[in-house]
Fold:
Amino acid sequence: LVSGQLAGQHWLVSAGPTREAIDPVRYVSNHSSGKMGYAIAAALRDAGAQVTLVSGPTTLDCPDGIERVAVNSALEMLAACQAVNPDGFIACAAVADFRPAMAAEHKLKKGQGDLNDVHWVENPDIVAAVAGAKRRPRWVIGFAAETENAIDNARAKRIRKGLDAILANTVGDNQAFGTDDNHLHWIDAHGDTDLGHAPKRVLAEALVRRIIDLAKE
Ligand code: PMT
Structure:
């Protein structure tokens, strides 16, 4: 349906979790599987775009015809995203908001209170950095993973981060993270649209179709 419509465009997609090292054997992360972001990358490819997929650690194979850049931490993900200058960026990664200020050089020992002494610092906001860059892509689209009031929280997040649109999904209770299907709401400056509950592949296609339609207006 959307075949060839993004030909000549370069799109960047972030997907999966980040891992923030505590010591050489431990990290903090989240339940993102990468499925939603990988489905979006494949849908963009099917629409004819050149796609760079910056991916945190997942068990997924890289879809054919897509360049994957594998990263671990949020800082690595930021650097990989800033290394490309795309026409559009879809930030689907579940980036850890915090990291230990310094990963310990040696494995922390139990019984000495070491873990209580880990000092946490905030990670940079990758999608906000891209949206605020001098050479801003034409499209910067984020996701909002919410456990309550998904639409209202996502609306505020879109404006705070300077995004053209945001996809709201409710997480927790076995929803969105790691599942094969999802329920998404598209939110932009004009309002919001329920994209419904469907397999992630189907939602990814609906999302790409929406971008193509809006670009024609
Ligand atoms: O990977 P799956 O198992 O398929 O699950 C899909 C998903 C639930 C991970 C996905 O649909 C989703 O919601 N991704 C965003 C998860 C998230 O971290 O949401 P957030 O509300 O915390 O962040 C809002 C936006 O800012 C996101 O676009 C996120 O990529 C971005 N962000 C957040 C923090 C940060 N330091 N840098 C960022 O760029």
Notes: Helices lie at 35-46, 74-82, 126-131, 150-161, 200-216. The longest helix spans residues 200-216. The chain has a mean pLDDT of 95. Residues 211 and 217 are 10 Å apart (CA to CA).
